[in-house]
Each structure stands twice: as C-alpha cells, then as structure tokens.
Amino acid sequence: xRRTKEEAEETRQQLLRAALSLFGEKGFAxxxxxxxxxxxxxxxGAIYWHFKNKEDLFLELIRSRIDPFIQVVERILSRxxxxxxxxxxxxxxxxxxxxHSGELLAYQKLMFIKSxxxxxxxxxxxxxGKELDALKKRVRAAVQRGQEIGEIVxxxxxxxxxSLMALMVGLAEMLVEGKETKGIQANLEQITSMFMRGxxx
Length: 201
Fold this sequence. Notes:
This protein is an all-alpha fold. It is built from nine helices and no strands.
C-alpha cells in the first residue's frame, strides 16, 4: 500500500511539474489538459484522478509552490544579520534566485498569470495573504530594529517595506518577461546600492 501511495504522489508531482512548465510558457487560458498530460507522459484520465479540472490543477500548483519562493526570504531573515545587511541581502538574493532557479521563475510567472486572470482565483487570497502578511511583519521588524540602532532612516517603517516590495515585484516582472535579465544581472549591485542609499541613515 505504501508503494501505491508513493506512486500516486509521484504521478501527482509529475502532473504539477508539467503544468508549471506549460502554464508559465503559454498562460492559463491557452494551456489544455491534454497538453499537460502529454508533457507528463500520462493520459487525461490521470489528471482527472488527481484534480477536478484545469482550475483545480492551477490552484493546487500555486498552493504547492508558495513555500519555495517565501523560503528564499525566510532564509535571509533567519541569518540574524544586522538590519541593513538583511535588506541588502533581500534586494540582491531574491532576483538572483529567480535568475538561477527555473522553478522559482516559472512560479513567479504563475503569480502574474493569477493576477491577470479574470476573477483572480479568490480561493487563494486567504492563504497567500496570510503567508505574505507574516513575511511583511518580519521584514518590518528588521526595518524597525535598524531604525532603533540608527542604521535606517527614521521614516514610516511601512514605507520602507512597501518600497522594498515594489522593487522586488518590478524586478521579478522584468525577469519573467525575459527582456532585461542580462541588464539586471549586470547592474544588480548598482540597483542595490541606490536602494540602500535611499534608506540608510
């Protein structure tokens, strides 16, 4: 029985990996379940055994891939670096992770697909909101510590967090589009330096 469960889970993961690739490449609307089955080396019946329909597959893909992206930032926050170094690491390492991890970049494409899809998949909002709120809270705490010890300029900590998120989302979208990857790689140090000068006390 254990082997059967393991095989079923591996089948499910193969379908999710195939869906991740195709949704990222073609978008939600243009991707057909038959294509996902073909890429996974399976039949459409295998998809319907594990998922109700294409939307259910997409939703599960988002749910199952939230942690890998957030863990990039959480690993930085767990290093116990000085606050200014923590923010610098986020600015440099998140785009670098997207550049070098095909799965993370494909997942980020899904997030932009989600935001542009009619209806926006409201089922995901409670889960994603909870994850992102917890992450923002930890980043905000780092900003406030930096302000307390005089590393970071004394302005509304939320403004610093929003500025950081805006920079990350902007760079992520450019990387997803694939038009400025080399430019971002070549200039990431200067981009980081400009951001840090703006918040440094």
